[in-house]
Structure formats: C-alpha cells, structure tokens
Amino acid sequence: MQATFSHCTVLLNEAVDALHVQPDGHYIDATFGRGGHSRLILSRLGPAGRLTVFDKDPQAVAVAQALAAEDTRVTVRHEGFSAVADLPAGCAEGLLMDLGVSSPQIDDPTRGFSFRHDGPLDMRMDPTRGMSVAEWLADADISQMAEVIREYGEERFAQSIAKAIDRRRQERGLIRTTAELAEVVAGAVKTREPGKDPATRTFQALRIFINAELEELQQALSASLRVLGPGGWLVVISFHSLEDRITKQFMAQHSKAVYDRRAPFAEPRPMALEAVSRLMPSDAEVAANSRARSAVMRMARRTAPVGEVRA
User: Fold this and answer.
1) Please, which residues have CB within 8 angstroms of residue 209's CB and are 6 or more apart in sequence?
2) Residue 255, helix vs strand vs coil
3) pTM to 2 decimals?
4) Which of 245, 291, 292, 304 has a 20 to 30 A CA-CA distance from 285?
5) Tally of CA atoms within 13 A in the half-sphere of 133 that contains its CB
6) Which domains does the chain have, with CATH numbers?
7) How far apart are CA 98 and CA 234, in angstroms?
C-alpha cells in the first residue's frame, strides 16, 4: 500500500488574492504541487475561465490529471515551469510560481530530499529523468562539489565538505543514501546555527543544482513578460535567499523605463512590470506550518503592451 503524505499550501489565500482572478480569465499555476493554489483559483473562475498547470513530479501530475478529469477548465503539462515559455504571447491574466519542495516530497523517504529520513540519495523532482544526486557525487571532483555546495547552499564549509565526501568515497565506497551523506557533512561542519542541522545547506545546494532550479526560475521569469497580457499579474513565492534575490532583481530591473543613451531626447520605452509589494506569512501561519517561516511572496503587474519587452 502506497503511503500518503499531507501538504499545507503556504500563503494560499494571499497568493490567489494577488492574482486578482477574473471569472473568464486564463491563469497559470506553474508549480502545481498538490494543487492547493489551483483549487482555490478554480473556485474563483467562471465556466469560461481556464487554468493551465505545470509540474515535473509524476506524483503531482497524477493529482493534476485527476483534477482535470473532474474539471474541463484544467490543462495539465508534465513539464518544469520554464516550459511556460511555450505558451502563446499575451495568453494569461495571471502566473503563479510557488517554488521549492512540497511536503510530500520532503516527507517521502524514497524521494531522497531530506536528511531527516533515510532513503536513496535522489532529489530529482522528476525521478524518471536525469541524474540523481548519488550518481553525480559518484564522479564529481572536489572542486566541482565545493563550487556547487558553496554557490547553491551559501555554505562556508563547502571545501571541507567536498573533501570529506571524496575521502568517504575512497575509504568506504560511494554515498548512496541520505543518512550517509548527512553523516559525512556533520563530520565536516564544525559549527552551525542553533537548531539548524549541519546538512541543511548541503542538501539544499545539491537539490537546487541537480534540478537546475535557479536556471529554470530565470527562464520562467523571462517568459512571464511575453505570456502575461497587459494588466496581468506575476506572483512568486520563494523559500530561500537565492530564489528571492533572482525574483527581486528581475522585478526591479523590469520596473524601470528604458532610456536609449544614443537618443537622449527620445521618449523612453515603458517599463514592462510594476513591482507592487512583497508579503511574508503571518505569525499564525508560521505557528501552524513551520515550513512557511522562510517564505517570501513578491508580486508585480504587467504594464507594457505585449511585444514591447526589453531583453
């Protein structure tokens, strides 16, 4: 019998409110997960409204397909959220991205995302495609491992961890489980913030790297400028500083008018976005769901007509 894992959607009402759902609009949930945001969007759509959902995870796609079987307004794409770029220009009134890992992924030991549960060292959002973390660690050299752990985990002990992984490979063979990796990292990290597991940053780094999460985010953000129609809303929920920094900088960059230095007296091209605000979970939500504590939601409104987007 397959185990079931619960998921509590972060910033559920706040995110859907920020989309300003119009009953006959087309909305995109680029990270379906277990469908919390999607179901609330559907409840606000009329019969002519449409919802397109994306997800890499076959388990999430199965949930989405079951929803689509019940509701013909839903279209399911078994793809990462960068595939938003394949949609027609100006086709949507709102685009939502809820980044990070869902609770069922974290809590299922067979997925290999968490150091708290021993399981295969996998971490792929789509375990049917690509290379697992265990496979990558089998061949990566010390400099490659240190660069990934430092860049994607902001881990100051990256070099020590990489050397410890290499030493473990030579002495005891390849690292194949989450518990084995967590043990190696714990031995290499000498100090850590109170209450934080020594393996936290390393696991984050390897997950982000193996799934190309930051590259996919950048592609999806760029695609949003083409896919959103004038007045459309972009809503992004981030769970760590790297994602939030990319989102913040993107919205800031495209919220400025563009002046042509070669023609200083010419009218500037209009800004593509109007960055509206950011929002954090309430104390009550964090108390009810500890995984919400690091969430940051940023919102922006599409302003320039479709086609008037700068690179």
Assistant:
1) 136, 148, 152
2) coil
3) 0.90
4) 245
5) 31
6) 12-103+213-302 (3.40.50.150), 126-210 (1.10.150.170)
7) 11
